[in-house]
Amino acid sequence: MQLSETDSSVSINSKAGLLLPSRAMLHLLSPGGLRTRLSILIYHRVLPCQDPLFPEENHARSFDRQIGQLAACFNILPLDDAIQGLRNGKLPPRAACITFDDGYADNAEIALPILQKHGVPATFFVATGFLDGGRMFNDTVIELIRRAPGSTVDLESLGLGKFSIGTVPERRQAIYELLGKLKYLPSESRQSTVEAMSTLIPVDLPRNLMMTSSQVRELHNAGMEIGGHTASHPILTQMEDSAACADIANGKEALENMISAPVRFFAYPNGKPGKDYLPDHVRMVKKLGFDAAVSTAHGAARKGTDLYQLPRFTPWDQRPVRFALLMARNMLKTGETV
């Protein structure tokens, strides 16, 4: 599924003239074979239009533009082909992969048609416990604060403080602060706190943020790779080893039953080496039969990179030359591991 490198492929972007020197620069850093570097990009959501609360979040138009830039500058490969290339030292120049984490419905509704338009493969790492009407804790917090009436939210009874939300920047800051306080709590404590927040802020919350099982199958049937991302998206370091292993295994089994195919690749939830996963979790992933795994450490993989700790990165800049410079800088990093 390797893309053509003809000049016509560059014309998909209105700033093609700027992309040609960008592609040449990237070629110097990743010329192919044993010297090439594999850039794995990570996405989460692709919204239908720009979100005033999070304007930097990808939406259909910006994602279409960025995928066009990637297709013009890189050889975008399926993850399994890229991993084979890492093993045997036969990656093409400027090799790249595209991945998505968590399992948002807009991945199937918006991202998939754009990927198909550009002839680009991707891997979708899905946390199975939120499919079919579920919602991740961070999205509950975001939507509670987004929809909360008035200009203040008082969560002092939960030990979380009181927040001004009279303006969009204040709402955004409240969300960032709350997520920072909640993310590394034990899963049960975090869930009970978020449920208590929902009682204090009685607003209607969306139940269609995550994919349905049929949408996961749609991605698989479209030729996209489906990867494991646990069942409940926990911070693995905050769990007992037996519970962490079971959560990884349960997610894998649920997906394999869903798509009637092996699930070969895994993404560590949150993915920071040493903080979100440890060597024991890497061993679990190997023992459970995954072929490779990805983290969120910045950097580019090369021959000899630990296939169970492949780095990932996304430069959130839509300007073609700046985009290429950020990608080039990331190529110089090897990626932290445990």
TrEMBL record:
Show the InterPro entries listed in the entry. Glyco_hydro/deAcase_b/a-brl, NODB_dom, Polysacch_Deacetylase
User: Where is this protein found?
Assistant: Secreted
Segments traversing the membrane: none
**Signal is among the record's keywords:** yes
Query: Entry's Gene3D superfamilies?
Result: Glycoside hydrolase/deacetylase
Show the GO MF annotations. Answer: hydrolase activity, acting on carbon-nitrogen (but not peptide) bonds
Recorded GO cellular component terms are: extracellular region
Every NodB homology domain range = 94-338
- Keyword Signal listed? The answer is yes
| Highest taxon above the source species | Bacteria
**SUPFAM superfamilies in the cross-refs:** Glycoside hydrolase/deacetylase
* Biological processes annotated in GO: carbohydrate metabolic process
User: What is the name of this protein?
Assistant: Polysaccharide deacetylase
